[in-house]
Automatic annotation (TrEMBL):
Protein name per the record: histidine kinase
Alphabetical keyword list: ATP-binding, Kinase, Membrane, Nucleotide-binding, Phosphoprotein, Transferase, Transmembrane, Transmembrane helix, Two-component regulatory system
PROSITE patterns: HIS_KIN (PS50109)
Its EC number(s): 2.7.13.3
Catalytic activity field: ATP + protein L-histidine = ADP + protein N-phospho-L-histidine
SUPFAM superfamilies reported in the protein's UniProt record: ATPase domain of HSP90 chaperone/DNA topoisomerase II/histidine kinase, Homodimeric domain of signal transducing histidine kinase
Transmembrane segments: 165-186
Gene3D superfamilies: 1.10.287.130, 6.10.340.10, Histidine kinase-like ATPase, C-terminal domain (3.30.565.10)
C-alpha cells in the first residue's frame, strides 16, 4: 500500500510538472503568434502607402519605420531577403541566424511559416522565434522574410510551479503518513486475528471434539473461519467413518478367530454324540428316551452354535465383488424359494430388471433381511412378508416389509451395529453386513418400524444397467 501511495504521488508530480511545462510553452506560443500577427498587420499597413514596393526596395521602405513598430510591439524584428540573408534588424546584438538555415527556408516555402519553440537558454530563460513572409498588397508576391525572436524569463512561472508542487508534496506526505498509520493498525489487527486463528489450527486434532471458532465480523478473516469450521465438520464425519471402518475390521478379525475356535471342537463333539447314540442300547425304555432327548438337545445346540460360527465366518470372509449383468427379479425369486412360500408376497414393477451387481451380495441382502423378518413375527401371528422391486429415479428400490413385533425406539439407533441382536441365538452381524454391502455400492438402507405392527426396510441402489 505504501508503494502504491508513493508511486501515485511521484506519477502525479511528474504529470503535473509536464503539464505545467506544456502549458507554459503554449502560453508563450500564443503570445508570439499574437505579436507576429500585429507586426505583419503593421508592415502591411505601411506597405499600403508604397504601391511600387518590391524585393529590391523593401529594405528602404521598412528601415524608416521598423524601429517604431519595434517600440509599439515590444518585440525585436529581423528582416531577411528571400535567400535568407539578414538585411535589417532592431536588435543591438547580432541575431541568432545571420543567414537562415536551409531547413527554415524549406519550411517557409512549404508552409509560409516556421516557429521555433522553447529552446532553453539557461537561468530560467527560453528562446522562441517565428518566421513568416512579407508580401505585397495583393498577397501574391513575396518580398522578404520577417523573423520575430522572443526570449522569455520563466522564473515567476517556475516559482508558481514549485509552490504548487510543494503544496502537492505536503498533501502527499500527510496522506502517506496517514495511510502508513492506517495500514499499521489494520495489519496489526489482522495479524493478531490470524495468529489466534493459527493457534486454533495447531490445537486441532483428528480424534477429538474440536470446537468451531465463533467469529461475527464480516471481513476477509471470516472466509478462513468459515472454511475452518466447515473443515471441522468434515473432519468429524471422516473421523467417525474411520472409527467405524476400524471397528468393522476389528470385528472381522474377532469373527474370524471366534469362528475358527468354535468350529474346531464342534465337529468331534457332534460325531462322538452320534456314535454314542448308535452304540447305546439298554432294556430300559425310560433311560433310552431320556438319553435320546438329551442327545438331540445337545445336537440341536451344536447346530445352533455352528450356525452362529458360520455367520461369523461369513462376516469375516466377505468375498470380493464380482459385478455382472444379472436379472434382479430372477435372483430375488430364487433366493425367496428357500423360505415358506405362502408367507411371502413378491411383486416387481417390471418382469425383468437387469443391472450390474454381485449376485452373491444380492442373495445375502435378501436372505438376511427376510430371515430377520420371519424371526421377528410372533408364533401367534400368521407370517406375512412383502418383497417389492421397482425402479425409482434411476435407483433400484427394494422394499421388504413384515408384520412382526417391530423395533423399539431404544433399538433403532443400534440396529446396524455389529454384535447387536434382540434374539437369544443371533450373532448380531447380519444387518451390519447388509449395510456394508449396500454402502459399498453407494446405496442407502433405511427402515420404518412401529412396535407390534411391523417393520419396513427400504433399500436404494444405483441402477447401473449399462
Amino acid at each position: 500500500m505504501l508503494a502504491v501511495l508513493l508511486t501515485t504521488a511521484v506519477l502525479i508530480l511528474i504529470i503535473t510538472n509536464r503539464h505545467f511545462n506544456e502549458q507554459t510553452k503554449r502560453y508563450h506560443e500564443d503570445i508570439l503568434m499574437k505579436k507576429e500577427k500585429a507586426v505583419l498587420l503593421s508592415i502591411n499597413y505601411l506597405l499600403d502607402s508604397y504601391p511600387e514596393v518590391n524585393e529590391d526596395n523593401i529594405v528602404k521602405v521598412l528601415e524608416t519605420r521598423i524601429l517604431e513598430i519595434n517600440d509599439i510591439q515590444k518585440l525585436s524584428i529581423v528582416i531577411y531577403d528571400l535567400r535568407g540573408n539578414q538585411v535589417l534588424t532592431t536588435e543591438a546584438r547580432n541575431p541568432k541566424y545571420p543567414v537562415l538555415p536551409q531547413n527554415i527556408l524549406d519550411s517557409l516555402n512549404k508552409n509560409d511559416q516556421y516557429v521555433e519553440v522553447g529552446e532553453s537558454l539557461g537561468d530560467q530563460r527560453s528562446y522562441y522565434a517565428s518566421y513568416n513572409y512579407i508580401k505585397d498588397v495583393t498577397e501574391t508576391k513575396k518580398l522578404a522574410i520577417v523573423a520575430l525572436p522572443y526570449e522569455t524569463n520563466d522564473i515567476f512561472l517556475q516559482e508558481d510551479m514549485n509552490t504548487l508542487i510543494g503544496s502537492y508534496g505536503v498533501a502527499f506526505v500527510f496522506i502517506i503518513l496517514l495511510g502508513a498509520i492506517m495500514i499499521y493498525v489494520v495489519s496489526k489487527n489482522t495479524f493478531n486475528r490470524l495468529t489466534s486463528f493459527a493457534d486454533r489450527i495447531k490445537e486441532t486434532e483428528v480424534i477429538s471434539n474440536n470446537l468451531p471458532i465463533l467469529y461475527d465480523k464480516d471481513d476477509e478473516i471470516k472466509v478462513l473461519v468459515d472454511a475452518y469450521n466447515e473443515m471441522l465438520v468434515k473432519l468429524k464425519d471422516q473421523s467417525e467413518l474411520l472409527a467405524d471402518i476400524e471397528r468393522q475390521e476389528a470385528w472381522r478379525e474377532f469373527a474370524r478367530q471366534v469362528a475358527h475356535e468354535i468350529k474346531n471342537p464342534l465337529t468331534p463333539m457332534k460325531l462322538m454324540i452320534q456314535n454314542y447314540m448308535r452304540k447305546f442300547e439298554t432294556d430300559d425304555e425310560v433311560l433310552d428316551e431320556r438319553t435320546n432327548r438329551t442327545a438331540n438337545i445337545l445336537l440341536q445346540q451344536i447346530d445352533t452354535i455352528e450356525s452362529i460360527a458360520d455367520a461369523f465366518s461369513d462376516f469375516a470372509k466377505m468375498p470380493s465383488r464380482k459385478d455382472e449383468l444379472i436379472d434382479v427379479v430372477e435372483i430375488t425369486k430364487n433366493t425367496l424359494d428357500i423360505f415358506d412360500g405362502p408367507s411371502i408376497i413378491f411383486t416387481s414393477s417390471r418382469p425383468v430388471i437387469q443391472m450390474y451387481f454381485d449376485k452373491q451380495y444380492l442373495n445375502r441382502i435378501i436372505t438376511n433381511i427376510v430371515k430377520n423378518a420371519f424371526q421377528s413375527i410372533p408364533h401367534s401371528r400368521e407370517p406375512k412378508i412383502l418383497v417389492d422391486l421397482s425402479i425409482q429415479r434411476n435407483n433400484l428400490e427394494i422394499i421388504i416389509e413384515d408384520n412382526g413385533k417391530g423395533i423399539s425406539d431404544e433399538d433403532k439407533k443400534e440396529i446396524f451395529k455389529p454384535r447387536f441382536t434382540t434374539k437369544s441365538s443371533g450373532s448380531g452381524i447380519g444387518l451390519s453386513m447388509v449395510k456394508k454391502i449396500i454402502e459399498d455400492y453407494d446405496g442407502e438402507i433405511t427402515f420404518e418400524s412401529a412396535e407390534d405392527v411391523g417393520t419396513k426396510f427400504i433399500i436404494q441402489l444405483p441402477y447401473t444397467h449399462e
